[in-house]
């Protein structure tokens, strides 16, 4: 189970608060105050969830989460926002395919539940992907086995047909031999 969560916010006190909130939780928290650094580290961390602030000076959250989506499409993306601009929200949804929005200031319970749901969603998706791979491999093996069985059945059918042909041929010869013997016996009786 992947329990790694990346938080990105340019405000260090917010990252400290988040780290404290998750101190006794079953998640491995990685906090970054710079989205560029976070992007450099995500490929090493391999998180289940990335949570980003929307308003950051160097790269806004929608651009950051869009880059995360492009590079790691299976990672669950959550947006923290203190702004309720509907146009910006739609842009973020369309660009970053956001799993959930959390408004600032957030409640710890809401934040923890969102992280739990995101981690669960990620792990279920990964399990589903693995199961799909297993099913695909089993189907391929089954197709190969079916093909092998078809070939064996054809071979057996060919053998049966050849044996039937030989039996018919032998039966004809036997009938010819019996007819010749009966004819010889009848001729011997008649003479």
Automatic annotation (TrEMBL):
GO terms for biological process: phosphorelay signal transduction system. Pfam families: Response_reg. InterPro entries: Bact_response_regulator, CheY-like_superfamily, Sig_transdc_resp-reg_receiver. The modification 4-aspartylphosphate is found at residue 53. Keywords: Phosphoprotein. The keyword Nucleus does not apply. Residues 4-119 form the Response regulatory domain. The keyword Metal-binding does not apply. This is Signal transduction response regulator receiver domain.
């Amino acid at each position: 189970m992947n329990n790694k969560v990346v938080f990105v916010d340019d405000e260090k006190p917010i990252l400290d608060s988040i780290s404290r909130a998750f101190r006794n939780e079953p998640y491995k928290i990685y906090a970054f105050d710079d989205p560029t650094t976070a992007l450099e580290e995500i490929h090493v961390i391999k998180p289940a969830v990335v949570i980003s602030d929307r308003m950051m000076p160097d790269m806004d959250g929608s651009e950051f989460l869009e880059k995360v989506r492009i590079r790691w499409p299976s990672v669950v993306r959550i947006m923290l926002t203190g702004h309720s601009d509907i146009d910006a929200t739609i842009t973020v949804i369309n660009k970053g395919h956001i799993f959930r929005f959390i408004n600032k200031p957030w409640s710890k319970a809401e934040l923890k539940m969102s992280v739990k749901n995101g981690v669960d969603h990620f792990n279920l998706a990964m399990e589903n992907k693995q199961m799909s791979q297993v099913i695909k491999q089993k189907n391929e093996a089954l197709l190969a086995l079916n093909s092998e069985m078809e070939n064996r059945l054809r071979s057996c059918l060919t053998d049966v047909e050849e044996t039937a042909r030989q039996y018919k041929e032998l039966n004809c010869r036997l009938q010819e031999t019996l007819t010749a013997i009966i004819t010889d016996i009848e001729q011997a009786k008649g003479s």
